[in-house]
Amino acid sequence: MHRPDSARRPSLLLLAGLVALSACQTTPPPPEVTRKSLQQSLHEHRYREALTMLDARLLQDPDQPELSQQREDIIQASREYREQTLAEAQRLAGQEQWRDAQGLLESTGGHLIHPGPLVALRESLHQQEARRLRQRLSEWWQAQARALLDSATLDSALTGYTLPEAGQTLELRQAMKADLTERLTEVGNAYAEQGDWSRAQRALHLAHQLQPDQPAPEALGQAQQVLARARQRAEQQQTQRQRERSESLMTAYRESGSLKDLLAIREYLRSAPNNHLTALRDEVETLCRERYTKDMATGDALYARGEYQAAYAIWQELKPLAPDNVELNKKLERTRRVLNNLRALDATSSE
Q1: What fold, for 134-155+166-234?
Q2: Coiled-coil segments, which residues (predicted)?
């Protein structure tokens, strides 16, 4: 076995000693050289390198307060640049420029003093990118599935053709259906595991439609149940809000007796078609009919006493309650003619 020449060991030891002694006797760079390098590092946003340079100077000359202040300034500048980088990376991610966002974080992290938030954001963006890609692909697969389903009659039509292209197309369509079923089932199950039941239901429903002879995905039934319960809760909450609003309007009418308040609650109930409010809606319609009968009678009494202006005012106010009522419109027209004739007589008398 070949061994190193033992006669050369003293010379190697001597060389190592000289190198070590030379390193110990190296003269520190002049202050102006250090300042120039420091400024260059700061200009290029290499804050960790700049801090290392400054700490080396502080070790040589710790009694310079301006160096300590400059150290704090470098740390603050690094922090501000870090926040700018985080904001820019998030902006890029919001535009789905994932490669640029990750590249920015990776290239910047090594130059910061405390790069921890950048590392955390990189991991967060990886997760966001994966979710967004899954959503994009799911939408694409669903579009393809709908296209196949919309052209389902083509399958039966092609079976009557003898040309090879017809058989090849049928095989291609069957392969596409099988592939899309697998992909949509996988993504639908992933959405179900995350509790995103709406997306899970859409993907799994299409997967089952593509191959209806196969058992429906288990998560599809679960998604449908969850969404049905959610719809039921939403409907109950909406009904409760509408009932509270209706009761508030009804209370206002009972306190004021104002036709305006009665019209307000009728309009609200008509704009909220909810079967749970049918009883209240019927009650309001009854109140409207009673109010119509009462005010019509009041107007008739005033008209009979010759108080045409007062009768006209009541009927005019009543018009929004029954805008197409023939009887009411006739009374208004007749009263307008009477008032016009009276004004004409007054004008003639004054002459």
Answers
A1: 1.25.40
A2: none
Output the furthest CA–CA distance in the chain (Å, rounded).
149
Mean pLDDT of 24-51: 75
In angstroms, the CA 313 to CA 279 distance is 32
Q: Rounded to whole angstroms, how far apart are CA atoms 116 and 109?
A: 8
Total residues found in the chain within this entry: 351
In the three-class reduction of DSSP (H, G, I as helix; E, B as strand; rest coil), residue 307 is classed as: coil
As its CATH architecture, domain 235-350 has: Alpha Horseshoe (1.25)
Per-residue pLDDT band for 33 (boundaries 50, 70, 90) equals low
- Give 32's pLDDT tier (boundaries 50, 70, 90): low
Residue 12's pLDDT is what?
A: 27
Closest alpha carbon to 183 in 214, 165, 163, 210 = 210
Dig out the tokens for 157 from the structure: 């039509």
Contacts of 191 (CB under 8 A, 6+ apart): 138, 197, 199, 200, 203
Give, in order, the Cα–Cα distances in Å from 65 to each of 20, 51, 166, 325. 33, 15, 86, 93
Q: Residue type for 61, please?
A: D
Query: Which one, of 270, 291, 292, lies nearest residue 281 by Cα?
Result: 270
The reported pTM is 0.66
pLDDT tens, residue by residue, 162-212 = 999 999 999 999 999 999 999 999 999 999 999 999 999 999 999 999 999
Query: In the chain, where are the structural domains located?
Result: 29-114, 134-155+166-234, 235-350
Looking at residue 148, its pLDDT comes to 96
Same fold, 134-155+166-234 and 235-350: yes
Helices (H), the chain: 9-24, 31-43, 47-60, 65-94, 98-109, 116-150, 153-158, 164-194, 197-210, 218-256, 259-271, 278-304, 308-318, 326-350
Nearest to 208 by CA among 217, 195, 219, 199: 217
Q: Are 133 and 141 in contact (CB under 8 A)?
A: no
Q: Are 226 and 170 in contact (CB under 8 A)?
A: no
**What local confidence, expressed as pLDDT, does residue 37 receive?**
87
Q: Give the contacts of 342 (CB within 8 A, at least 6 positions apart).
A: 308
Q: How far apart are the first and last CA of the chain?
A: 147
